[in-house]
Amino acid sequence: MEHLSNWLLLSPVGAFVLAALALFVVDAIDPDSTHQGVLAAIATGGSVVAMAISGILLLSGAAEGGVELFQGQLVVDGMSLLFTFIFGSVTALVTLGSIDYIRDLAHQAEYYLLVLLAATGMSIMASANSLAVVFVSLELASLPSYALVAYLKHNRGSVEAGLKYFLIGALSSSILVYGISLVYASTGSLLLPDVAAAAGTAAADYPGVFGIGVLMILAGFAYKTASVPFHFWAPDAYEGAPAPIAAFLSSASKAAGFVVAFRVFVVAFPIDAIAGEVYAIDWVLAFQILAVLTMTVGNFAAATQENVKRMLAYSSIGHAGYVLIALAALTGIGGPGTEATVLGAGMIHLLVYGFMNTGAFLFIALVEYWDVGRTFRDYNGLAKEAPLACVAMTVFLFSLAGLPVGGGFISKYYLFAGAVGAGVWWLALVGAVNSALSLFYYSRVIKAMWLEEADEPREIESYPTALYAAILIAAVMTVALLPGLAVFDTAAFDAAAAVLQG
Amino acid sequence: MYIEALIALCLLGAVGVFVAPNRYAKKLAFGVSLVPLVISLYMYAAFDGSGNALLGGDIAYETFFEWLELGPYAVNYHMGLDGISLPLVVLSTVLTTLAILSAWTPIDERQSQFYGLMLFMEASLIGVFGALDFILWFVFWEAVLVPMYFLIGVWGGPRRKYAAIKFFVYTNIASLVMFVGYFALLFGLGGAVSTTGLPAVAQALRAGQLGALGPLGPETLALLAFIAMFIGFAVKVPVVPVHTWLPDAHVEAPTPASVMLAGVLLKMGTYALLRFNFTMLPEQAATLAVPIAAIAVISIIYGALLALAQSDLKRIVAYSSVSSMGYVILGLVAYTVYGVGGATFQMIAHGLISGLLFMTVGVIYNTTHTRMVGDMSGIADKMPVTSGVFVAGAFGYMGLPLMAGFAAELFIFLGAFESTVLPSAPLFTAVAMFGIVIVAGYLLWAMQRSLFGPFRLETDYEITRAPVHDVVPLVTLVLLIIALGTAPDIFFEMIRDATIDVIEFGGDL
Fold first, then answer.
1. Distance between alpha carbon A254 and the CA centroid of its chain, in Å?
2. Which of A348, A351, A394, A405 to mutate: most B Cβ within 10 Å?
3. Mean pLDDT of A126-130
């Protein structure tokens, strides 16, 4: 019997599950429920509770050092709580913003239910301490996502995107699970700390099996985080999906991919133990290549888009590249302090990104709700009709570009400065150049909204309250995280240090 | 907590004005802007700082909180004012209020957004002058770009989008270059500093604690960092040859934005040059004194010649800013008490005078709907007060005694002439002084043709006397300019107190 306080540590996950079960009940009683307020309130309430509890636990230091549960299958520590906080905040924004977006669609209870189940899977991913749990929770997060992408079932784009996402997701899962089996074969364990203990010998005795296993796991995570060259599904899936779901996938799901990657690679495959062997895999080098490719391809592709949603999709690939710096800078050059800084910087960037990117996609949802159109041109003159939402969008875009109007500036500063400290200054340089480039395509949206005149008069009849509220909350949080990161940064760096020490 | 109160009031006011209905926006914005104005005047009256904030002087209205940690560097919320920054804060609050008044007539669409942005800009400007930590300072520095981009791009003239984007791209790239320069210094100092704070870095650099960074030795590193930061700030000032964004931005910007741009935003560049380049790296400034002085003199003469060649009143005033800001650079590079003090004084003087001239051109344009010198003649008959103010402003620019411009330029010339840092200082000074002649030339020429002579106007608009709300800010500025000219000690005493440390710490350069 685990101690009671250990269950408290799992209560954020429990909040997601309970809210999902409550939606099951509502759906069972009234299958065609159109009480959107109730459905959204349950979903949003559950996520806010999950966010609040994980935030409090994180800042109170309750899980300092990490608490292992279920014979070490799960671990609750600073990193898992920080990411659960991210999932909770993104899920709350997405469910709140969805009310208006899916107003006239069927199966609303199922919609919220699937979002919450995916969030449950993600928060277990954050705590996964065994490769088996990694795989199961990843599937729990992925399966609802496939259905959600195809939720607009009368829309060809949505269905096609769902199918594409599903097929590629299934393929990447099989690659991941095959990689896990190879690692298991060479180390004889699925628990991450035990894998780590056997990693050195495994790399020496079975370099091929172990190395390919690690590479395949890396590829599986690269799919999940939409990193180049495994990114092809992302723009199509994000474009076809309902906009709030695109927000959910590109913020929360990506963060979930990263938290697993952080934990598995840092804990299970200690670089100093395995990189020394002749045939073994130097995954830091792999992540360096991945980071440069992802940043550059993502940003250049974003710069050539004509469709705002696709532009954001590619820019989110670019942001995955920035976060990859967190793993690519674990070179051992800068010492433990620098490594904790740069890994923590990755977490902080995902935290800020959760608000600014979700907000930007929710703005797209608002524009889709108005049937305005999807190209830059269609956004012309929007600020005249919706100044507040456009201010919020401006904040998101400038913050994504790294201008100091929001937390994005500080988190990028952490990442790049951390990379310099770790001796991979060229990675910071690539990042900074990409960041400067990104300002050009982000500002195209801003220019269209504020400076251009609409081609033809538009009729905007209603201003959806819930969606507006979600966008404004995200904007306020993005700005508040500029000074407010001070609340989280120590927690994130401590969490990173704890993970690095193992 | 006074600086925080100023910033918070401006920000809250900006949000309030932004969501207020258009018809209340201007009154609300004006009312809101009076509060920081009064507070800043009180701060002037109660100022008790001494010395230079970066060099261990007593900082007035200081606040300090721990903010972020980045590996070995602490980023703190550190605000405070000394004799250099306080006058600029007062300048910002005064000009914002007057610029809001001057927007009364020309801004007739999306008013709540316009005034909201003006107040947001005021908050950012106060932050720039108050911040004593690099990251904090950079946040405000970049935040200034955003409202100005929209003010030009939405409410500007026919080529507003081009001008807005050019402004944004130029100054943003410059900021990045400067950012790299500062961080190179920070990394070069290694363990000698544990914070990104300006005072710590300035004192460590002055104490000669700069080490090598990779293959770069301390000397090369300092020189390269100086150049990177100089380029970053020179774009903002702007000096020739990176001045080309300025006329575009000025001509397309609506009057109130031009006032803020010329009056305060350009000072960010010279303020930063003084704080970073000349305070932190005086030896490098001395090494590069000749090229910098050459750039200053070229800006003075070339800017004035460009102004002479314009026929658009607004362009004339815009190019004259390039010229006037050249004097500031000359004063800084002279590195004498009167040179640096005069340069700081010129920032204030030029802020008031160029603000005045832009406002006057705006008022004339509101009435006549033309800015072309050739299209008008004898305006003074119909708009006596406005024309009188224009003449006063022009005299201020030319350096007529008892006006602020005279005091500033006198200090600068005195300081530059005696400079020991700058080789052949008298020569540079003499050439720079020749700039005044050209200034007088183009201003007298423009006034003579547009204001005086027989009345003639090539537009269909009827000429009426400017309304009171247009004239009040003009007259206020004239009074301020005369006040500063007759009693420069209103600001010069505290400026000298803060700049003298910059020079003395420089030792025997």
1. 3
2. A405
3. 93
B312 three-state secondary structure = strand
What pLDDT is attached to residue A467?
Answer: 92
Q: Which long-range contacts (CB under 8 A, 24 or more apart) does B44-50 make?
A: B44/B86, B44/B90, B47/B81, B47/B83, B47/B86, B47/B494, B49/B80, B49/B81, B49/B82, B49/B83, B49/B86, B49/B494, B49/B498, B50/B82, B50/B83, B50/B497
Size of interface A-B (CB pairs under 8 A): 72
- Asked if A129 and A192 touch (Cβ cutoff 8 Å), the reply is yes
**Cβ–Cβ < 8 Å for B32, B119:** yes
Contacts of residue A484, defined as CB under 8 A and 6 or more positions apart, other chains included, come to: A407
ipTM of this predicted structure: 0.87
pLDDT (tens digit, 9 = 90+) per residue, B128-141?
999 999 999 999 99
Give B66's contacts in chain A (Cβ within 8 Å).
486
Distance CA B299, CA B246 (A): 13
Distance, CA of A93 to chain centre: 14
The residue with tokens 């899936």 is: A237
From the candidates B12, B18, B66, B68, which should be mutated to test the interface with A, based on the most A CB atoms within 10 A? B68
- Give CA–CA dist B489/A321, Å, rounded: 56
The two structure tokens encoding residue B285: 């400034």
> Which DSSP category does B54 fall into?
G
Nearest to residue B382, comparing CAs of B443, B453, B455? B455
Give me the half-sphere count of Cα atoms (radius 13 Å) on the Cβ side of residue B426: 0
B143, B146, B161 member nearest A451 (Cβ): B161
Under an 8 A CB cutoff, do A451 and B71 touch? Answer: no
Q: Which pair of tokens denotes residue A490? A: 């120590």
Q: How far apart are CA A326 and CA A316, in angstroms?
A: 16
The answer to whether the beta carbons of residues A323 and A379 sit under 8 Å apart is: no
The partner residue sitting opposite A403, judged by closest CB among B67, B68, B142, is B142
CA–CA gap between residue A324 and residue A346 (Å, rounded): 8
A9 and A62 Cβ atoms separated by less than 8 Å: yes
> Measured between CB atoms, which of B70, B77, B113 is closest to A341?
B70
Contacts for A40 with CB less than 8 Å, ≥ 6 apart: A95, A96, A98, A99, A112, A466
- What torsion, rounded to 10 degrees, do the Cα atoms B400, B406, B407, B409 define? -160
**Hey, of B22, B134, B142, which one would you mutate to test binding to chain A, going by the most A CBs within 10 A of its CB?**
B142
Residue A283 has which token pair? 């995954």
Q: Residue type for A159, please?
A: V
Compute the nearest-CA separation of B153 from chain A (Å): 6
CA dihedral A340, A345, A346, A351 (to 10 degrees): 130
Q: Note if the bond before B241 is cis, omega within 30 degrees.
A: yes
In whole angstroms, give the CA distance from residue B276 to residue B295. 18
Distance CA(B79)–CA(B135), nearest Å, equals: 12
**How many Cβ atoms are within 10 Å of A400's Cβ, its own excluded?**
27
Among residues A355, A356, A354, A349, the alpha carbon closest in space to that of A489 is found at A349
pLDDT tens track for A11-36: 999 999 999 999 999 888 887 766 77
Q: Among the listed ranges A88-92, A198-202, B146-150, B455-459, which one has the minimum average pLDDT value? A: B455-459
**Using H for helix, E for strand and C for coil, what is the string for A384-445?**
HHCHHHHHHHHHHHHHHHCCCCCHHHHHHHHHHHHHHHCCCHHHHHHHHHHHHHHHHHHHHH
In DSSP notation, A223-291 reads HHTT-TTS-THHHHHHHHS-HHHHHHIIIIIHHHHHHHHHHIIIIIS-HHHHTTSSSS--HHHHHHHHH
Rounded to whole angstroms, the Cα distance separating A98 from A368 reads: 12
Q: What share of chain A is helix, strand, coil (3-state, %, to 5)?
A: 80, 0, 20
